[in-house]
Amino acid sequence: MAGNLANDTDLVQEIKTLLWGPSVKYDVFKQWSQGFFFSNDEPTALVQAEGGPCAVIAPVQAFILKELLLESDISNWKEVGTEQCNFLLVKAMTEIVARAADSLQPRYCIVRTMGPQGYGTTSMNCENISNKVPDLKSPEENKKNDQHYQETTNSMENRLELEPDIFHSQLRIFTIDNMDELKKYFTDQIDMMKNQFGILLFLYTVVCTKGLAGMQSEMSDPMEPLIDSTYGYGSQSLINLMLTGRAVSHVWDHDQDVGGLKLQGIDKQNSVGFLAFLEHLRYCEVGTFLKAPSHPIWVLGSDTHLTVLFSSERRLVSPETPADQARRVFKKFDPEGNNFISSNLLQDVLAELDLVADTEYVEIMRKKLDSESLGIILLAAFMDEFFPEDPRTCPDTFVLFHYNGLPRSNLENKVTYRRGQAVLLECTVKCILDSNPMLTVLQTKWPSIEVQWDKEQTPSVN
């Protein structure tokens, strides 16, 4: 592990500005000042103390779930021990950092604190300021810790106002060239990652590994902070960075030309997906690469929070069929989402799909698909002509699970996975209701879905 301390201060300052803007609000910084720790009621579920850091916690949880679904049956998850949970956390963090690195010349930039005892020991650990929601095992310990937290908070009120400056002044950057060493680092420093600033140190490591130039080249507006200065929410660029390794600001497939501007999107199928509540308002368009990931796991974005939906049903993420590919390509030429394209674009669509695209044939098909000479070709007509048989691979019924890391958003304030029985109805019945945002966001993926949740209460996406 090597570091260049002389340049650390300038680089940390640039990363700080990219994340927080020109100044760091103490209240927002405090929201993000927690470590990774698991629920006492669901051993493999991370807990989020306050609003804000879900932009990091939810993606990490999604990658933890990816490993869990590959390794064991859901019915056994309650028995997972601390050592295995730490292992899953290390694997998730390692994968996210690796995605952010340059694929051709990977280099991992570790950001950690330097305290009076040397690298890795910080004067701002749990000895001084306890996590607000501790990972303890008994009511007596919780009560004792709450008292300790209150006492230390009251006695250090003045110092806490300087906490962001103290934190950033202690950051140091080191580089690792080997992913095995990266994994070993997180394993060795698991206690630090569970400590008060674990999430921030991980976030800074991901951003530093990506590099400022890489971040700025992908963000639509590099001057816009990745963390909202008022509410502490992570931007879409930050969410995409954690999920895909790319800090693009949009969730559609590939790049799109909007009014002469090239706006970058998701460039390939991701291993975990993303669904957005705001898509039903046409505020964004989630493409196939995120709606149909390679694993049945989706981060759900409401207008205030990120949660995670997952299933053990592998058929929910069957490989892309030729018809799926055709819809995706067609929509690439239909950026407004109108479900039709200009008839002049038919040849381009056919060529991209490797279908017959010579001029004479295209002209015949154009007249057939646009028989009234309206100048447009409907998606439905296109699919009926070229892909008349679209086999349905998704099952009619399946089990879903939902995770929300905020205790206050869970029944009895206990962070647990909620189970739901899903059914796809024969007819499409849209249910866009403020009273049921969960169903609304799920219908952006499965338009005809209905879900009966356990305990007869729909989980909160907020």
Report on this structure.
This protein is an alpha+beta fold. The chain contains 18 helices and 14 strands. It has helices at 5-20, 26-32, 54-71, 82-100, 139-155, 157-160, 163-169, 179-188, 190-193, 198-210, 212-218, 236-244, 288-291, 322-332, 346-352, 359-369, 379-386, 437-442, and strands spanning 2-3, 108-115, 118-119, 171-176, 256-258, 261-263, 273-276, 297-301, 306-310, 340-342, 376-378, 397-403, 418-424, 449-453. The strands form four sheets. It has a six-stranded mixed sheet with strand order 7-8-9-12-13-14. The protein is globular and about 70 Å long. It starts with a strand and ends in a 9-residue tail after the last strand.
Q: Provide the structure class.
A: alpha+beta
Mean pLDDT: 85
Spatial strand arrangement across the major sheet:
7-8-9-12-13-14
Low-confidence stretches: 2-6, 116-161
The main sheet comes to: 6 strands, mixed
Provide a count of the helices.
Answer: 18
Q: How many strand units?
A: 14
Counting copies of identical and different chains, the oligomeric state is single chain
Gyration radius, to the nearest Å? Answer: 24 Å
Judging from the principal axes of the Cα atoms, what is the shape?
globular
Helix content: 25-40%
Query: Termini, distance in Å?
Result: 40 Å
Strand share of the residues?
5-15%
